[in-house]
Each structure stands twice: as structure tokens, then as C-alpha cells.
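so my prof wants the structure for this chain in the C-alpha cells format not the other one, which i didnt know existed until like an hour ago. anyway here's the sequence
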Amino acid sequence: MPINSNGYEPEKIAQFQTILQDVKRWVREVGKIQRENLWKQNLLIETKSSEVDLVTEIDKLSEEYFLKAIGENYPEHSILSEEAGENEKTGTLYRWIIDPLDGTTNYAQGLPIFAISVALQYQQETVLGVIYVPMLDLLFEAIKGQKAYVNGKRIKVGAKSDLKECLLSTGFPYDQAQNPDNNTNYFSHFVPLTRGIRRLGSAAYDLANVAAGILDGHWELNLNLWDVAAGFLLVEEAGGKVILLEDKRGVSFVAGNSVVADKIYQEIRSVDKKKQIVS
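here's what i got, hopefully its the right format
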């Protein structure tokens, strides 16, 4: 039986494609909930790890939708989601990784920049990723080895190679006020080296934009798997590169085309080296 370049038989790819149709339906339904409740009066907002780490009632409502949908359609699958944590099923080869509302601070403020991120792992490898941006009705999707698309149109990472021509994005950890490893040193370093830097407030949306060639690169520190699982797959299937900063906290990384990702990585390491010399 023929095997594709990623080691999956056609029947397995067909299974992933069937699951993708379910996910696309689910994210559109959850996106509708989020659109209808944006700018809601007296939106319930709570804090988690810090005063700037928020969760709203819509985060929880969105997550409940996904947990119910997966439980009804794929009850044997494990799930890792931002608010509910890990629901591990013994013996399964599948794990869902879900951020039901990435960009909660934006949402709580009424700023319409946020995304839904859903990934599926098979044998510990991410094989499916969907990022949906409700307010723009943009649905980014990828299956391992099958390229990346937005609203049915194939996307590719940008072709730039000079940082001076690049528009990058980044974000800052929730404990930025307490921990000095908070990205401000890297941010200051990159400002004069690039065309500009954006801070959108949703790592999932940032990565989707890198995959689509809208942003040329992204770096960030101390994220969680649910923030990036779908986005990493999108970038790679769009021809891009993700480099993990394994000596940093949490999930820390750079992303872009292979040239830009390498250059961002080298600049970060140059900042680290200067810090070591000073200390």
C-alpha cells in the first residue's frame, strides 16, 4: 500500500481529512458564540496566574463546546485544553490540543483580535491544525504533509531574507512584571533591526500570519502547547521553520521562513551572549 512522505497511508490521511471537516464546523460554531458575545455588558472576567492573566465566561463556554463535541464524536481521544487541563485516556493514540479563545485580554477589552486554535496529535505528532479568526472569518488549516490553506486557498511563508525588510511579531509572558526573562531585551534589540514589530496579543493568530506570509517572523517566550500546536504545523506546512529555544522557559521559539527564522535565532543568541559577558 502506498505511503506518503510523512509515513501515513492514504486511509489515514482520509481519516484526518474527515476529522478536519468536523473541526472546521466546530470552530465556526464557537466563533459565532464569540462574535455574538464580544462587547457584552458585564462580561464575567476572572484572573488566573497573575492580574494580567485573564479568563472570561466566553473562554469557558467555548471550551465546553469543544469538550462536548470531542466527547460525543471521539470519546476515546485524550484532550489537553487551556482551562480544563489534561483529560488523558489510557491506550489512545490521539490527543487534542485546544485553546478555545487565544487573545483573552483583547476579548475582555472588546478588541476584536483573537483566535481559536485546535490541533490533533497522532502518536505524539501533530497531524492536524486549525486556527480560526472569528471577526475576520479566516479559517487556517493544515494536515501533516498536505500543505496549509486559508479559506481554501494555499498559503506559503514569505520570501524575504533581510531583517531590515521584515515585519515581525512577538508577545510577552504573563509574569513580565515579576520575571526579568520577559522578552523586553529582545524586543529592544529587534526594533532598530526590522521594518517593524507588532504585538497582536494572540500567538495563534501571529503564527497563522507567518504561515500566510503576512508577517515575516515571530518569536515568543514561555508559552504553552495549546498556544502553538496548530500554529507550528501551519508554519511548517506553509514551507516555514520553527526553532525551539529549549533553554528558555515553557514553549519558547522563533518562526519564519528558514532564512528569517535562523536570523532571528542568531540575534536572540547574540543578546544572550552579551548578557553573559556583562554578568
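also thought this was worth mentioning. The CA atoms of residues 68 and 75 lie 9 Å apart.
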